[in-house]
# Entry
Amino acid sequence: MKYAKVYFEDVKVGDELPPLVKGPIQQIQLTRYAGASGDFNPIHQDDEFAKAAGMGGVFAHGMLSMGFVAQAVTDWAGAGRVRKLGVRFAALVRLKDTVTCRGRVLSTSQKDGLNLVELEIWAENQKAEKVVTGKAIVALIARD
Amino acid sequence: MPTKINTSVVGKEYPPYVVTVERGKIKEFARAIGDLNPLYLDDRVGQASEWGDIIAPPTFATTFRDETADTSVLLRDLGTDISRVLHGEQEFELARPIQPGHTYVCRSRILDIYEKTGKSGPMAFVVRETAITDRHNEIVGTMRHITVVRL
# Structure
C-alpha cells in the first residue's frame, strides 16, 4: 500500500486514509527536527525552560505533528499532490506519546483541469485525544 | 494582571527575503519527520518523476526563515517573549512543490491580531501570512501562521 497510486476515479466520499502511526516521540527527534526546520525554541528542548514557562515540560513542535499528518496524506495521495494543508494544534504532544494520523474524504470536485479531493485530517495520541485537526486538498491524477 | 501586546503592528510588512533551497536540507527535513518517501530522498526517483528532480514535503516552507522577518522579530514587535507563545494554527497552500536549487522570494506580513479567553486565561492570536514567489514572480505557495500569545 505504501506509495501506491490512488486515482481520482477510485475515490469516494467517506473513504478513509490508512492510519499512520508515528512515535513514541523521543527527545532526539525534537532536537533533529529543530535542526532541520530551524525552530530552536528551547521549549521543545529544555525541560527546565518549559517548566518555568508553565508548560509542565518539553513538548513536540506543532510543525512536527503537522509533518506527520502531511505524511499520512502523501502516503495515500502521492508526494507532490498536496494543494492545501491547514491544521489547528489542539493539544500538546509530549515525549513518549504515540501519534496516529488519520483522514477521510469529504468531497471530490473538478476545477481548472484539476481533480480535487478534500480531506478531513487529524492526529490523535495514545489516549485517543485529538492533537491536530484540519483539512487538506489534494490534486489527484486521473486513470485515463 | 494580564500583559498587553502591541496590536499596532497589524498590517506590518516585513522586508522580502530570498531563499535558495538546498538539496540536502530537503532530505534532512524529510528524515527528521521520519518520512522516507523516495520522491524526497532519492535523486534518481526524482529525476524520473514529472518534476524532474526531488521535491520537498508539503510543510518544508516552514524552514524559510530570515533574521529580518523571523519569530524573534515578531516577538519583539509584539512586546512579548518566546516563553509565552504557542503555535495555534498553520496552513500551506501550494501551487506546486518546492524543489532544490530553486530560488524563492518570501514576503511576510501581519494580517490580524484578535484576543480570546480560553481555559488557561486570556490569549492573543497573531495571524501572519507569507507569500512565496519564484524568480518569475509567480506564486508558488502561501503560508498562514497563527501564533498564540498567553497574556
